[in-house]
Design a protein that fits this description.
Blueprint: E1 5-8, E2 15-16, H1 18-30, H2 50-58, H3 62-80, E3 85-86, H4 90-99, E4 103-111, H5 112-121, E5 130-134, H6 143-153, E6 162-166, H7 169-178, E7 181-185, H8 192-198, E8 202-204, H9 207-213
């Protein structure tokens, strides 16, 4: 793959945020009197924009979903953000790519302020030229908008040299909307069917496979 600029999703691609995200969703649902005892069922919140997920999975109105996001962030900011872990092999992957002259970026729907704190906490920030995310106002939470933002901030114009790497259909569809290639990874939270139906250009089952591909 002759790609020079590699955009990485964060949740489900670089780190496994399962515990922190599901507990934060649980906290937010409790604020609405909804008891979600089985946190496994909340894994579907990992990846997509939060507001959309509250509306899709629990039938919230847009106003309720906005309140749900605010409640989620109360817990996430204090406890959930760092209740997270880096996937085995990710640090070696990033180090290897940088040594080979690749330019790395983060493009996450998670608010940028959280993205940067997580990368710094796990000492991954030094590998990336730029870490881009959504905003707290919700005006930049769609993956295509985040990708466009990263490309604009970093003045990346040759789309043929850029690839988006992520574990959910939103990463793949966002890349397609912007006009760049994409890699779907299977060690995160999306299935092969989800990624193939979204139109991923490549599929990597493991981090080792991803390293070989890139």
């Amino acid at each position: 793959m002759e790609k020079e600029h590699l955009l990485f999703d964060l949740d489900g691609t670089l780190t496994d945020p399962k515990e922190g995200i599901t507990k934060s969703v649980q906290y937010a649902l409790n604020a609405f009197g909804i008891q979600a005892e089985d946190r496994e069922t909340l894994c579907r919140f990992i990846g997509p924009p939060l507001k959309d997920s509250f509306m899709e999975f629990y039938g919230f109105t847009e106003e309720e979903a906005i309140k749900g996001v605010a409640s989620y962030r109360e817990y996430f900011r204090e406890k959930g953000m760092l209740d997270n872990k880096v996937y085995d092999g990710v640090q070696q992957l990033l180090k290897s790519l940088v040594q080979r002259g690749k330019k790395l970026y983060v493009a996450s729907s998670k608010p940028e302020v959280f993205v940067r704190k997580i990368l710094e906490h796990f000492e991954l920030d030094s590998y990336f030229v730029f870490a881009g995310g959504g905003d707290l106002e919700g005006t930049r939470d769609k993956k295509a908008d985040v990708i466009r933002y990263v490309l604009k901030e970093c003045q990346l114009a040759d789309l043929s040299k850029i690839v988006m790497i992520g574990d959910r259909k939103h990463d793949i569809l966002g890349a397609k909307e912007v006009g760049i290639d994409s890699v779907g990874v299977l060690y995160g939270y999306g299935s092969r069917q989800e990624l193939e139906e979204a139109g991923a250009d490549w599929i990597a089952e493991t981090i080792f496979d991803l390293q070989n591909l890139l």
